[in-house]
Specification:
The complex is a heterodimer. Chain A is an alpha+beta fold. In chain A, 46% of the residues lie in helices and 12% in strands. Chain A is globular, with a radius of gyration of 22 Å. The chains are: A alpha+beta, B alpha/beta.
């Protein structure tokens, strides 16, 4: 509407006003908007405005073959695509009673953990940038790129891999891949001290992030918080340990917990998780050469593949939280219904709306990044 | 006092100026323009994930003189990174019309070319250059940072050779673009920017600037002079 055609509405005088953050805003992660009602610089209420990235995924998947859906599922969550492929494959395998060979399961876990490392490195940078520190962003993106190089060697794609299929993974790992993975892990551990000095124990950052956006245990359970955000509230729940899938029950790892529940606790939990992932990857490097056998079990002709009728609920732990697919098959060549339970839709909508109340306007972006929500996954 | 219409605007003619000194000056200006571009990346979709690697130390877009800019009014390039849903496309158009000319649009990812992965989706706009003129497309799902930089270099060489003038097309064929926008958003679609007034001011009116769709626009929007033209000199 042109300003000339705009009729101003007169309201009783007050200190309250409304502003938009986003959708095109440097302090917001992706294409997502947030409408704030402010009194001075204190937020009275916040309203999430999602839908800018809506593509109708659940409907699109009903119109494609089971195997064709593999190409679009990783696009639901862009920074962390591997759990999407794996959980879709797991749900199809559960419906059709398919066994995944053990070597295929090990390779899947290796990808999942490498993807978690990449996603967490990306998050640190984004969170630090909201407080005005840009060096962690440069470092995080540069170190993430080395993980993407490994993915490229393994799968052929930097960001979207489409490497997992129902029944296993597409092909075996290339020769010498585990050595290069180990070099990368050595490099990451050598950077640990630098990262601590730059970000995690840096008083500039710590004073800014402490006490911002506090979630207590009751609220966390009520709002459906999962993943690292839940573990930052002192609740030790991790799908990898409590409902093990693939070969996670054979691996030895800790679940980092911090009790505070604020933005600082959330980023410190992610830092600890990053190095737990490095620990898991080292176990995989040790065990994978001794696991022999095929990496995938045969599937019928994928273009005429009628998955038997049935339904399944499969869940994995992605870097954002608990990710689950509810899949229904009516015995046809296409899924009858697929529902995606993404962690971000809880974090970015109801948790963020509740946490914004009472916060100051400069902290809203930081709260949003500390929850590590992924807008494409909110809208789907 | 001269009327504003009589002041020569460089965009008014497409021909090169004949005076050799003026030509050297124009070429110098074009060279400088292509070497210092501020980029507004509207993160409409997945492609935004390959921009941080392209902007930071590994691929380092800044060595080409390209830097991110936070406001549309100071930006030269609009990067549309990925599929545009209908709700996003409204915001992209508002952003584009606010930018100062000369302005350039780069469509990244296959989704801006022809719909890409989401060709059958009910929620996305499929072809970006039906709604705004696009200078360079970078295809791929998603294009690597090297491809993004190659596309930007293509745009730089276009500007240097005086070919980066897709933005004039928005004024010359405004009726076409407005018609596609109205088809998507409904007949009461309007933006705060007076595109026809700007076209008059720059002397960029074409035969297709006016048409049936601009008539629909005029029904619910009073004709308006460009802001600058109302300033008394």
């Amino acid at each position: 509407m042109r300003p000339e055609n705009y009729q101003a509405v007169s309201l009783p005088s007050s200190n309250e006003y409304e502003i938009f953050i986003g959708p095109n805003h440097p302090g917001i992660e992706g294409n997502y908007a947030f409408k704030l009602r402010l009194d001075g610089d204190v937020v009275i209420s916040g309203k999430a405005d999602a839908g800018y990235l809506h593509r109708g995924f659940e409907k699109l998947m009903e119109g494609r073959l089971w195997i064709q859906n593999l190409a679009i599922v990783p696009r639901i969550c862009v920074p962390d695509p591997v759990p999407m492929e794996v959980v879709y494959s797991l749900s199809v395998e559960a419906i059709s009673d398919m066994e995944v060979p053990e070597r295929g399961q090990w390779i899947r876990v290796m990808q999942l953990e490498l993807s978690r490392v990449a996603a967490h490195l990306f998050t640190f940078g984004g969170h630090a940038a909201t407080t005005g520190m840009y060096t962690p962003m440069f470092w995080g993106v540069a170190d993430r790129d080395l993980a993407l190089d490994l993915f490229e060697e393994l799968t052929g794609g930097r960001v979207y891999h489409i490497y997992n299929i129902p029944g296993g993974v597409r092909r075996d790992i290339p020769a010498g891949f585990l050595d290069r993975l180990e070099n990368y892990l050595d490099y990451l551990e050598s950077r640990q001290n630098d990262y601590d000095n730059l970000l995690f124990t840096n008083q500039i950052f710590v004073k800014r992030a402490r006490g911002i956006g506090v979630i207590n245990k009751e609220q966390a359970l009520e709002w459906g918080v999962t993943g690292p955000n839940l573990r930052a509230c002192g609740l030790a729940f991790d799908v990898r340990r409590d409902d093990p899938y693939l070969i996670y029950d054979k691996l030895d790892f800790d679940i980092p917990i911090i009790d505070e529940g604020d933005a600082l606790a959330r980023i410190l939990v992610r830092r600890d998780e990053l190095f737990q992932s490095v620990r898991i990857l080292r176990q995989i490097i040790k065990h994978l050469p001794s696991v022999k056998g095929p990496v995938r079990s045969p599937i019928p002709n994928p273009l005429a593949w009628n998955v038997p009728a049935g339904e399944s609920y499969s869940r994995v732990e992605s870097s954002k939280g608990e990710l689950a697919y509810y899949t229904v098959s009516d015995g046809g060549p296409k899924p009858y219904r697929v529902h995606v339970r993404g962690p971000s839709s809880m974090h970015a909508v109801q948790v963020l709306e509740n946490l914004a109340v009472g916060a100051r306007i400069e902290d809203v972006a930081q709260i949003m990044f500390s929850l590590d929500a992924c807008p494409p996954e909110v809208d789907r | 006092m001269n009327k504003l219409e009589n002041i020569p605007v460089q965009a008014k003619s497409d021909k090169k100026r004949t005076n050799p000194l003026a030509r050297v000056f124009d070429e110098l200006i074009q060279f400088c323009q292509s070497r210092s571009m501020f980029m507004l990346h509207y993160c409409t979709g997945c492609g935004a994930i390959e921009l941080p690697p392209a902007m930071t130390s590994r691929f380092d877009m800044e060595r080409l003189g390209i830097q991110p800019m936070v406001t549309p009014r100071q930006a030269d390039i609009l990067l549309v990174t990925g599929y545009v849903s209908v709700k996003t496309l409204k915001r992209v158009l508002l952003t584009y019309e606010q930018m100062q000319s000369p302005k350039y649009v780069i469509g990244i990812c296959s989704c801006t070319v022809n719909g890409g992965m989401y060709w059958q989706s009910y929620a996305t706009a499929k072809v970006l250059n039906e709604y705004m003129p696009v200078d360079v497309y970078i295809a791929g799902c998603m294009p690597r940072p090297e491809a993004v930089i190659a596309g930007l270099r293509r745009l730089m060489s276009n500007i240097e050779n005086g070919k980066g003038d897709a933005w004039k097309d928005y004024y010359k064929r405004y009726d076409y673009y407005l018609g596609n926008q109205q088809h998507l958003f409904g007949d009461d679609w309007q933006t705060p920017v007076d595109v026809i007034g700007e076209a008059k001011f720059y002397g960029l009116e074409g035969e297709e600037t006016y048409g049936e769709h601009t008539k629909i626009l005029e029904q619910h929007q009073e004709p308006l002079e460009a802001q600058v033209m109302r300033v008394k000199l």
